[in-house]
Write a structure and sequence with these properties.
Strand order of the largest sheet of chain A: 10-9-11-8-7-12-13
CATH superfamily of the largest domain in chain A: Aldehyde Dehydrogenase, Chain A, domain 1
Number of strands of chain A: 16
Order of helices and strands of chain A: HHHHHEEEHEHEHEHEHEHEHEEHEHEEEE
Helix content of chain A: 40-55%
Largest sheet of chain A: 7 strands, parallel
Oligomer: homodimer
Low-confidence stretches of chain A: none
Largest interface: A-B, 66 and 66 residues
Structural class of chain A: alpha/beta
CATH architecture of the largest domain in chain A: 3-Layer(aba) Sandwich
Shape of chain A: globular
Strand content of chain A: 15-25%
Mean pLDDT of chain A: 96
Distance between the termini of chain A: 48 Å
Number of domains of chain A: 2
Radius of gyration of chain A: 24 Å
């Protein structure tokens, strides 16, 4: 009952959001950015309650850090919303026009998705980010954030609604599911009659729960068991810098390197040199037999290791005898996110770019670039690891749909 | 166990199918077309068993007709495959190229979906059609046809596999699930680790079962509660021809008109004239109060009528006082398939094309044109009624994915 009412309001709101002009949307986003800055005091007070509860519940430091808002982070949220306002409008773009032999004129045009649902965990800044992107893409949004951030999210959503109301736009353009129990969340995943798209953002457990339970079309995001293959022709110094960057620049992200594949002809020479650099960050190596022989500090990897997204200072290492074997190994173990070859052999690079079945396949660069901002999209709502609809970083253009307008003068089918 | 083995073979096959050149694919399709023609005798013998069982089980005439193969229908299947061979290759198309400020070169390129699953009912010609489209799109296909057509499907698939083998292509490019019990089908819908996309083709019950149970990304197809809105400025004669065509040209299809929305200012004059024509095909009218007043032959519609896809000689009629009301009524009752306005008022036409939330929105033409062939796609694997990935008729371009190739020279993220 609670959910049906909330979803119905969002469904009704989608029609008026869809009609807003670019100017109306951008103006509203700027007003909302100001509203958030103005409401800093109440948002921080709400956030303090969440932090207090987190500490009382023994929440660990990393999560507490993600949950914490402060002056800079609120300014950051507002600035993110202003940046989305500055991006091109993804709606109303003509993708194709044709006239059929019978005179029917077909126009394929981008339109809003309608109602987008986002299920996420404890980072309250996602609340503002996700709203801004969905709103600019002409959709109403229903947010289900983590229980730990409920007070922060409620305050942020209230501030956004206030900004919408100031602009004469329906406050139902954003809805927050305030019941944070698991049953309500599972029920939400089945509200197909109201919600056009559901995007889960968070850990593997959350994403699996959504995929298993949702009847709403889902875009799966985030899990990244990213590989780097070091071919025998790789430039060792360049390779060491790239791997060091991909493994250690930020360990908790989905585009970090988790698994190394090394050509057997170079493993003895390369791996100890690489380890010299990686050991400055205490990276643990879990290798197959040949890697362990090449590096005494390596621990033996289990088969399970090769499927793992560590999100930690750990790297699995597998040796192969050629590029084909590297491709097969990667396609068997990766998550379809990002994989790279480091090589100076053009033929091997071509084979790898063609053969690896991932959203983003790199040659001679760090996998850490898989990101909507780095790709020039100006924003990102997540990184898709499925093949339907959107693959890789998703910006505004990836959260719209299209329709056909067909104009005739009395055509009937014979 | 049976399913895992079959799915694993398809997954392995997808890599070699993905590598085939356009010439290899087109040549194989032509060989397969010939193989089907050559195997007419064995295919018809298998089909005779299905028909015999159908008759024994009291299968009704319409279904028996769909199930029946003959010389012309086998020639038709072969010709359909040859037509797919003649279409452009949808794979390897460069969608976008850019160079980032750091020198990384991004190429967005179309790639095969991988493994596509199709669940369908008793029409054995779908077996050949679906294979041809998926194969041309570079994917392996797993087919689950209706129990009633199992002998026919087995014979068709054997003939296709023979053709593949003649061309030195893995026979696992096509797989038929020969266990036709419901449990196996439901289990198949959860084989997410092997299957990239699942397309149900058939009635509302089949589609609902797939949406409710699948963990594989689904493209929902087919259900069409299509509306035609007759504005007060419509040309009556043109409107009568269009509605007659959309309602009666073929009643069992998803793009047939099921519901009429008429401006209240013209209902008294228009509806009796329309009925004169519709009654030549014995179309039953189920109307709201104003329609029943305008037409004595009309029966009173229930609220349920307005949500119904009749697939029969029945039409519901609702009167409205303006275009906005028509749009709201249609968005509430349609299935997102095809809806039309008949009007000579440009402003109302614009409003309607913008406001109706369907895959195909028409002005002054029959909804019966929603079809891959009519749209010039050269083929069709179904009509999507969801907004994710593909909307409306789906041809080859709608069953591929894309990936990013990122080429660098040592870039790391700062």
């Amino acid at each position: 009952m609670y959910l049906d009412e909330l979803c119905l309001k969002a469904k009704n709101a989608k029609y008026s959001v869809a009609k807003l002009t670019r100017e109306e949307k951008d103006n509203a986003l700027n007003v909302i950015a100001k509203s958030l800055v103005d409401d800093e005091e109440s948002i921080l007070a709400a956030n303090a309650k969440d932090i207090e509860a987190g500490v009382a519940n023994g929440m660990h430091q990393g999560l507490l850090d993600r949950l914490t808002l402060n002056h800079e982070r609120i300014e950051g949220m507002a600035e993110g919303i202003r940046q989305v306002a500055a991006l091109d409008d993804p709606i109303g773009k003509i993708l194709d026009v044709s006239t059929r032999p019978n005179g029917l004129k077909l126009t394929k045009i981008t339109v809003p998705m309608g109602v987008i649902g986002i299920i996420y965990e404890s980072r309250p800044n996602v609340t503002a980010d996700a709203f801004a992107l969905c709103f600019k893409a002409g959709s109403a949004v229903i947010l289900k954030g983590g229980k730990d951030a409920i007070n922060s999210n409620t305050a942020i959503v209230a501030s956004i609604k206030k900004g919408l109301a100031q602009c004469g736009i329906t406050e139902d353009a954003i809805s927050l599911i305030e019941k944070t129990d698991r049953e309500t969340t599972t029920e939400f995943m089945k509200k197909k009659e109201y919600v056009d798209l559901l995007i889960p953002r968070g850990g593997a457990g959350l994403i699996k729960a959504v995929v298993d339970n949702s009847t709403i079309p889902v875009i799966e995001t985030g899990t990244g068991n990213c590989h780097i293959f070091v071919d025998e022709s790789a430039d060792f110094n360049e390779a060491i810098e790239i791997i060091f960057n991909a493994k250690t620049q930020r360990i908790g992200v989905c585009n970090a390197c988790e698994s190394l594949v090394i050509h057997e002809n170079i493993v003895k020479e390369f791996l100890p040199k690489l380890y010299e650099k990686l050991s400055t960050k205490n990276v643990e190596i879990r290798g197959d037999k040949a890697s362990c022989e090449a590096l005494s500090e390596a621990k033996e990897a289990t088969e399970e290791d090769f499927y793992k997204e560590y999100l930690d200072y750990i790297l699995s290492v597998k040796t192969v005898s050629n590029t084909e074997e590297a491709i097969d190994f990667i396609n068997e173990h990766n998550t379809g996110h990002s994989d790279a070859i480091l090589s100076k052999n053009e033929e091997n690079i071509r084979k790898f770019l063609q053969g690896v079945d991932s959203a983003c396949v790199y040659a001679n660069a760090s996998t850490r670039f898989t990101d909507g901002f780095e790709f020039g999209f100006g924003a990102e709502i997540g990184i898709s690891t499925q093949k339907l609809h959107a693959r890789g970083p998703m910006g505004l253009e990836q959260i719209v749909s299209y329709k056909y307008l067909i104009e005739g003068n009395g055509q009937v089918r014979g």
